[in-house]
Amino acid sequence: KLLCGCRALVARALLENPQLIDWRLVFKALYGLVALICGNGYIVGINQIYDIGIDKVNKPYLPIAAGDLSVQSAWLLVVAFAVVGFSIVVSNFGPFITSLYCLGLFLGTIYSVPPFRLKRYPVAAFLIIATVRGFLLNFGVYYATRAALGLTFQWSSPVAFITCFVTVFALVIAITKDLPDVEGDRKFQISTLATKLGVRNIAFLGSGLLLANYVVAIVVPFLIPQAFRSFVMVPFHAALAVALIFQTWVLEQAKYSKDAISQYYRFIWNLFYAEYIFFPLI
């Protein structure tokens, strides 16, 4: 997930400034990637530590829930991820990126850790996921890449587009991520939109938001033709929109079985990856 987004944003920054490409920057890019992996490891790890009971029902294959990794070892890994990631960022990317990185770690912490545990509150959980996976990742990576090239930060239309697009997409992921976990969430009295409104309603809400996202993506190149390649943007997003409609129909026909829900959620992630893969071409 991280690699896909980072690759796309770095590629975009380089394509916009090919004359500034210096292969010595590869090492700095690798440092940045390791820092992002560490940050993600910290956020995911601390969430799994505090979700052991729920994961034993919803995701028994996860290492802590399955007993393959002890809680003590998990804590050591989580702390190591945070320390290594922070050390890399503070020594290589300056105070602004360091502050963004710390903000991401902080949001990941209050999402999972009591007494905050904001994942219990749907709106707060959605906002945190959308902020971290949407805005912070895209803005931060693009900012850091331009800084490494010796450039001041400046929004480009494609980067502004992908940041807004993926932020909405991250919101959809936040909304739909609980669909496969309804059973465990109900057992442990975790309040999610899926447990409150039902799987069908949330699936339609997620698909509807994504379709609106795709409609905007199809319209944008006609509004700003000098910034986008309409011959890529229009057919690409139209095809993904059609595929989304079909997958939602498949879910409906399967009567929202557990396997169909999992397949639908995986498909949402595949759409997410596809957007980043094609992003440098738009």
TrEMBL record:
Pathway info: Cofactor biosynthesis; tocopherol biosynthesis
Pfam assignment, any one: UbiA
UniProt entry keywords in alphabetical sequence: Chloroplast, Membrane, Plastid, Transferase, Transit peptide, Transmembrane, Transmembrane helix
Segments crossing the lipid bilayer: 29-50, 71-90, 96-114, 121-143, 155-176, 197-224, 230-251
GO molecular function: prenyltransferase activity
Subcellular localization(s) per the UniProt record: Membrane; Plastid, Chloroplast
Cytoplasm as UniProt keyword: no
GO CC terms: chloroplast; membrane
Its membrane topology: Multi-pass membrane protein
Family matches, as InterPro entries: AtHST-like, UbiA_prenyltransferase, UbiA_sf
BP GO terms, sorted: vitamin E biosynthetic process
Family membership: Belongs to the UbiA prenyltransferase family.
Protein name (record): Homogentisate phytyltransferase
